[in-house]
Design the sequence.
């Protein structure tokens, strides 16, 4: 185990596995965020579908188990990303990693993963402060009266999470930061997704071209999805 944590390939493996785990979380998060736009389609009143989704996530015992695992996944991915980045910078010397210099045969996203990572972490901090910390009660916010919403054939009652998100997405600087973070996420995934599978061992002429295409699809769905939701909330809701 100690060799796994200290050897370069072991660090890359941990970073890759944690990154793939976080991508699964991002898809779940995107599905929940999409509820912000689907009330009319599903026959719900404004905000009810999203409030039901938040209530499900907040009361599901499995989610309570997954949350600390998710936090650990973020920490592992960030820490080992930084370690490997600085190792690469040291090995390259003056040709520093993420310097913006074009290296033949290397993707722009690959050369700038550090910059993209910093943008994503900054975006994540803003997201946690504005939404997660308030919904969990760690930061006080004017929640207003409890609201009722359909919930698996019955009626449930909870805080109006939709109002918090909706009001936040009416603040243009936050929306712009959210979009910048989502675009940075897309570029990060466009390289990171296929690179993770390469590290795991899917590095062959048959699968790599396919994984690069899938990586672009994943990047567009996640980065584009979060962008569209934020922009649509600001412009149309």
Sequence:
């Amino acid at each position: 185990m100690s060799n796994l944590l200290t050897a370069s390939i072991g660090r890359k493996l941990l970073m890759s596995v944690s990154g793939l785990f976080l991508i699964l979380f991002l898809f779940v998060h995107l599905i929940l965020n999409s509820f912000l736009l689907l009330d009319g389609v599903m026959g719900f009143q404004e905000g009810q579908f999203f409030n039901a989704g938040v209530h499900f996530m907040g009361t599901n015992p499995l989610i309570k188990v997954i949350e600390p695992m998710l936090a650990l996944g973020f920490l592992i991915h960030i820490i080992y990303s930084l370690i490997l980045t600085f190792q690469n910078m040291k090995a390259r010397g003056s040709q520093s990693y993420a310097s913006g210099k074009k290296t033949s045969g290397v993707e722009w996203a690959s050369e700038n993963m550090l910059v993209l990572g910093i943008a994503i972490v900054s975006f994540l901090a803003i997201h946690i402060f504005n939404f997660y910390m308030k919904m969990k009660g760690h930061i006080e916010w004017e929640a207003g009266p409890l609201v009722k919403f359909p919930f698996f054939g019955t009626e449930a009652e909870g805080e109006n999470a939709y109002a918090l998100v909706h009001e936040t997405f009416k603040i243009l600087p936050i929306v712009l930061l959210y979009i910048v973070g989502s675009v940075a996420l897309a570029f990060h995934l466009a390289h990171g997704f296929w690179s993770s599978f390469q590290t795991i061992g899917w590095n062959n002429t048959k699968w790599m071209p396919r994984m690069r295409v899938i990586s672009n699809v994943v990047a567009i769905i996640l980065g584009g999805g979060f962008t569209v939701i934020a922009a649509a909330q600001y412009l149309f809701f």
